[in-house]
Amino acid sequence: MLSGSRGVIRVDNAEQFITAAEKIKHILSKEPCNQYEGRHFLVEQFMPGEEIAIDGFMQNGSFITLSLFDKPEPLNGPYFEESYYITPSRHAEQVQQAIILEVEKCCNAYGLTHGPIHAEARITDKGIFLIEMASRTIGGQCAQLIEYVLGKKLEEVIIRLMCFEHLELDFKQQHAGVLMIPIAKRGMLKRVEGLLKARQVEHISNIEIHIQPGYELIPLPEGASYLGFIFATADSFEDTWKALRLSHQHLKFITSESWSLEPV
Q1: How far apart are CA 201 and CA 232, in angstroms?
Q2: 33 and 95 co-located in one domain
Q3: What whole-number distance in Å separates Cα of residue 102 and Cα of residue 83?
Q4: pLDDT, tens digit, for every residue of 77-109?
Q5: DSSP letter for each residue of the chain
Q6: What is the pLDDT of residues 129-175, one digit of tens each?
Q7: pTM for the full model?
């Protein structure tokens, strides 16, 4: 019932499981959840491997790929904060086709025959495994990447595909990427330094800061917000990724201690 990897925790033994369960109970105690949601956790086996995301559209039982995003930084826990999304993928065509086939197969198995699809998968040594799939488009600001690659608004593409229009998708050759700026530590945001330098990095197209001074920064697994987004476009995957990393290094988030009163 939560979003943005909130409450998702990796555990490797019974002791860590108990600690994580208590932490998740505390998070849920502050949410308007029903009795079932408040008393049940989803437990999954951890699957090592590079993670990717894919957006597309099911039309008459066939999957139309809109974008395949690489997540080049390892996501091994203990928390799973989203960071870099870069498209088009740098994976071999054979791997990309295997991912698309797996998504299409899972959509047909669940009876999803017409509408938008967003899926996340892991590329493991045993093959491609979906870890999440939803009948929706990619969320929030990350949709700008698809719009850049397609040269069309995502809403327009989805509506026209919903109406069974045949679309000639003209994919750009350039790469586009986003960094969902992580929250490193808890505190009250006082100011953001280095924005000018960060924006001047080659290939950076835009930086958006979404948390204003005076508001509290809360990291995962409790936090539910990103600090902001850095966007980049370049001719190569590596240049796009490098620009995002370098731009982020220029940013300094100045905070003060935050205090909260909770009943004992």
Answers
A1: 9
A2: no
A3: 24
A4: 899 988 999 999 999 999 999 999 999 999 999
A5: ---TTTT-B---SHHHHHHHHHHHHHHHTTS---HHHHH---------SEEEEEEEEEETTEEEEEEEEEE-S---SSB----EEEES--S-HHHHHHHHHHHHHHHHHHT--SEEEEEEEEEETTEEEEEEEESS---GGGHHHHHHHHSS-HHHHHHHHHTT--------SSEEEEEEE---S-EEEEEEE-HHHHHTSTTEEEEEE-S-TTSEE--TTT----SEEEEEEESSHHHHHHHHHHHHHH-EEEEE--------
A6: 999 999 999 877 888 888 888 888 889 999 999 999 888 877 777 89
A7: 0.89
The CATH number that applies at residue 207 is 3.30.470.20
Mean pLDDT of all residues in 7-17:
95
Residues 6+ apart with CB under 8 A from 74: 50
Answer whether 227's CB lies under 8 Å from 182's CB: yes
Q: Compare 12 and 224 and report the one with higher pLDDT.
A: 12
Phi, psi for residue 221 in degrees, rounded to 5: -90, 0
Tell me: pLDDT of 63 over 80.
yes
Count up the domains in the chain and report the number: 3
Q: Say which amino acid occupies 25.
A: K
Structural domain range at position 32 = 1-43
- Is the model's pLDDT at 235 over the cut of 90? yes
